[in-house]
Design a protein that fits this description.
The chain is α/β, with parallel strands linked by helices and about 300 residues long. The protein has a 7-stranded parallel β-sheet with strand order 1-2-3-4-5-6-7. Strand 4, helix 6 and strand 5 form a beta-alpha-beta unit. Helix 2 packs parallel to helix 3, helix 6 crosses helix 7 and helix 8 packs across helix 9. The longest helix has 19 residues.
Length: about 300
């Protein structure tokens, strides 16, 4: 949409080829109220990077290093945290624990060197891979807070048919401090899933915090893998995009459910995060995004 990358492919190479565009995107999310800048490193895993358009020629280490430097450059002056993004591996075709964890370690070298504030292990369609990700971070970067998210295949299960509640329990036992779901489904479907996770973790006698980073669009009629199954994906999703009012409602429902890390995944724009930030202004100590005036104020004058 912004004219920098090829649609339909993951694009971590943008941090090297168009750093100014990635930098500006971080700035827009920070100005909208983000507390965390997540490194732009999705799909930057050695065993998958060649599938990303043009990324393979740069390599995992240079991409992840550039992504960390850009995120830090924007986040630190604004008082935001920097989260390293740990990407999925070729687990679907190679379920060998040692090889999968080796791929995670190759990604983690840069995040450890750059001393990111936390790690987000996300978009894992199989909970076993998410568990191995959490275990690897805990061993390789001890003391670093770990967030882990499942990318659900149905609103209640991962790709192996394991319930979302059980997924949460396993990720907590593997060392994750924050667990939840991201992508594939709309905000309210994802909230319902995390509620199941909260109940299961509590019933297991475990303690954790919870997160949700949903799709920024409606998916009520979607099949397996959510928006991936929709005929509009990826070039005609605009009629399904969440409004500011939808996102404000999402923020309130998520907060009331006990979820404290709120964000967005694909199709989420800075104005969506601004709506989340404004809706939870009082809960965040009165914090307002930079140069913010309430976007709905004009309605009161009409």
């Amino acid at each position: 949409k912004r004219g920098y990358v090829t649609a339909g492919k993951w694009t971590p190479e943008a941090v090297i080829e168009h750093p100014e565009a990635v930098r500006q995107l971080h700035r827009e999310f920070v100005r909208a109220g983000s507390d965390v800048c997540q490194t732009f490193t999705f799909y930057a895993s050695e065993d998958r990077i060649d599938r990303a358009h043009g990324a393979g020629k740069h390599g995992v280490y240079p991409i992840n290093k550039a992504a960390c430097e850009i995120a830090k450059e924007v986040a630190k002056p604004a008082g935001c945290l920097v989260a390293g993004g740990l990407s999925q591996t070729n687990y679907k075709h190679d379920k060998n624990a040692a090889r999968v964890k080796d791929q995670f370690e190759k990604q983690l070298h840069v995040f450890k060197e750059q001393e990111v504030d936390l790690m987000i292990c996300e978009y894992f369609e199989y909970v076993d891979e998410a568990v191995w990700a959490g275990e690897t971070v805990k061993k390789f970067m001890p003391g670093t807070p770990i967030c882990a998210s499942i990318c659900l295949t149905t609103p209640e299960e991962d790709a192996d048919g394991i319930s979302v509640g059980e997924c949460g329990v396993r990720m907590v036992r593997a060392g994750a401090d924050v667990v939840g779901v991201n992508c594939h489904f709309d905000p309210f479907t994802c909230i319902a899933a995390v509620k199941m996770m909260i109940a299961a973790v509590k019933d297991a006698g475990l303690k954790a915090h919870f997160m949700v980073q949903p799709l920024g669009a409606w998916t009520a009629d979607a099949g397996k893998q959510g928006w991936v199954s929709l005929p509009e994906m990826p070039f005609a999703m605009e009629p399904r995009i969440q409004t500011r009012f939808d996102m404000a409602k999402y923020a309130r429902e998520a907060y009331n459910a006990g979820i404290r890390y709120l964000g967005g995944c694909c199709l989420t724009e800075p104005y969506h995060i601004r709506a989340v930030s404004e809706e939870l202004r009082e809960e965040r100590g009165g914090y307002q995004p930079e140069n913010c005036t309430e976007w709905g104020a004009c309605l009161a004058k009409s």
